[in-house]
Design brief:
By secondary structure, the protein is mostly helical. The protein is 71% helix and 0% strand. The mean pLDDT is 95.
């Protein structure tokens, strides 16, 4: 069952949304809280915003929905920034974007704290399709692959669809970002590099 879009989601897709709109203020507060390595607490946020909790929930949905939206907003800024900055093309570009994005996630102080504090539930939100984060990340990678194919910088075998390749890349990426939660080892995005090269070249 598809969830109804929250007011925050609608605000983020509407270029006419003012910067001081309630849902946008909630997003900024949530990101500041997250990056300060504090727990994103809905009651505390409502008090800071001087609204009641019911209004906050109407703006951003449940805590889980809000965390996903907040993390996707941060991820999109990171991914779009990498796409603008990197000069490489073809498979090299996809590999570089994947590795550098993964390293940014691993080194993010808020993410480190959240994964350490909320572990299983945090990873579940980031890897379950129904939470909404994973499908958007796969779609972004699929779009990046499609742009390189359209530009003539890479080609896929006839039997391989861009979506399937993007799905595998996202799975490899997650495996090394959440390595400590999966195997107890230190997260290390560079360990994925030879696998991605084997996959894409």
């Amino acid at each position: 069952m598809t969830r109804r879009a929250t007011k925050l989601q609608a605000a983020l897709t509407d270029p006419q949304t003012p910067a001081d709109a309630g849902p946008i203020r909630a997003l900024r507060l949530g990101i500041d809280t997250f990056m300060a390595k504090d727990r994103v607490d809905m009651s505390a946020m409502a008090r800071t915003l001087d609204i009641n909790r019911a209004t906050l929930y109407r703006w951003v949905g449940s805590r889980e929905q809000f965390l996903v939206e907040m993390l996707w907003h941060l991820s999109l800024k990171s991914l779009d920034g990498l796409e603008r900055r990197l000069d490489s093309t073809g498979p090299d570009r996809i590999i570089e974007m994947t590795i550098e994005y993964s390293e940014q996630v691993i080194e993010n102080p808020g993410m480190k704290h959240w994964l350490a504090a909320e572990g299983e539930s945090a990873m579940s939100l980031l890897t379950r399709s129904e939470s909404g984060f994973q499908p958007r990340l796969i779609a972004w990678v699929e779009g990046a692959i499609g742009r390189e194919i359209t530009a003539g910088n890479m080609a896929l075998p006839d039997e391989v669809e861009p979506y399937e390749l993007a799905y595998v890349i996202e799975r490899v990426m997650g495996g090394y970002i959440y390595l400590d939660l999966i195997t107890g080892e230190q997260p290390d995005a560079r360990r994925a590099e030879p696998l991605l090269k084997m996959l894409l070249r």
